[in-house]
Write a structure and sequence with these properties.
two-stranded antiparallel ribbon, 330 residues, alpha/beta, 8-stranded parallel β-barrel, Phosphoenolpyruvate/pyruvate domain-containing protein
């Protein structure tokens, strides 16, 4: 891998510097078509960034239809939708990248923040994760400090690696980002799961060190109270803080306006789509089993209406503009 040329990491001092990525450089001008640049603009400007968790193409389409300007590719949701498995380190880098390639292609200028778990290995693998995510069109990812056999951050029994191993992951991610030709704006989010294992003081300390190592955003998983979130934001300022809300999880069900008032800059709702899908699909399957028809669960949505949510009109328009005649009647 080529050496970083857009910034530097001084391991002896533990402080990363890259003037090009100063938030002040993203305050002015129209929002970029580049999703990573656009995410940095959103982080630098007023207002909280709201990113609903998506689990597949259908949920991504629905989030875009609802008007969300940022999406979150949840690791738990991706593992569930692609593999039908729980979030316990079963999905691989390839699973996540393949999902990201599809999601990011639906609206290439909309930033997608993607879960990268532990980075899937040592420093070389973390670096590969960053370059593959960036190539897929992802705007930013988060790397955590759980052991490789990780689990959902809202389950009990988590184990974390040492501070130094966590910082090695962050450094590897930053070096890989800065080695992308042309000067990438890809956003590195440092996540710690240590609050439930080692306490909030250690969690904040780890994220301070991650910020020094080059993390653009700080993410403490499982913040249990408003007071803890507010104190975390204050302790990590001026670094933006991400909060993850999962209904029934460790973190209270803060609304977007409440989280913004507490100082959070990004709020993600990791399981909003896949939990809703479970409820909806369960009800539809139960109804079909009982009644022998899907008429009620369809709620009047015919095939064409369904395909229109999936972008049918855009496909028909493109075909016609190119001189095609395949979809004159649909």
């Amino acid at each position: 891998m080529a050496p970083a040329t857009n910034g530097h990491i001084d391991i002896s001092e533990g402080v990363y510097s890259n003037p090009r990525l100063d938030p002040k450089n993203y305050l002015e001008g129209p929002l970029s078509w580049n999703p990573a640049t656009r995410l940095r603009q959103m982080l630098a400007r007023p207002g909280i960034v709201v990113a609903p968790g998506i689990c597949d193409g259908i949920s991504a389409r629905c989030a875009l239809e609802a008007g969300f300007s940022c999406l979150y590719q949840s690791g738990a949701a991706t593992t569930a939708s692609r593999l039908g498995q729980p979030d316990v380190a079963i999905a691989t880098l390839n699973d996540f990248v393949q999902s990201a390639q599809m999601v990011c292609s639906l609206d290439p200028s909309t930033p997608v923040i993607a879960d990268a778990d532990t980075g899937f290995g040592g420093p070389a693998m973390v670096a590969r994760t960053v370059t593959q995510y960036a190539a897929a069109g992802v705007a930013g990812l988060h790397i955590e400090d759980q052991v490789q056999t990780k689990r959902c951050g809202h389950l009990l029994g988590k184990q974390v690696v040492s501070r130094e191993e966590f910082l090695t992951r962050i450094r590897a991610a930053v070096i890989a980002r800065d080695a992308i030709p042309g000067g990438s704006d890809f956003v590195i989010i440092g996540r710690t799961d240590s609050a439930q294992v080692l306490g909030m003081e250690e969690a904040v300390a780890r994220l301070r060190l991650a910020a020094d190592a080059g993390a653009d955003v700080c993410f403490i998983e499982g913040v249990r109270t408003q007071e803890l979130l507010e104190s975390t934001v204050k302790a990590l300022a001026p670094k933006p803080v991400l909060v993850n809300v999962i209904s029934g999880g460790l973190t209270p069900s803060f609304t977007t306006s409440e989280a913004e008032a507490m100082g959070a800059k990004i709020i993600i709702f990791s399981l909003v789509s896949c939990v809703a899908a479970v409820h909806g699909i369960r009800a539809a399957m139960a109804s079909l089993k009982k009644t022998g028809t899907d008429f009620t669960s369809a709620q009047g949505m015919d095939p064409k209406s369904f395909f229109e949510v999936m972008g049918l009109k855009e496909v028909v328009s493109l075909d016609a503009r190119a001189g095609g005649k395949a979809f004159q009647l649909v």
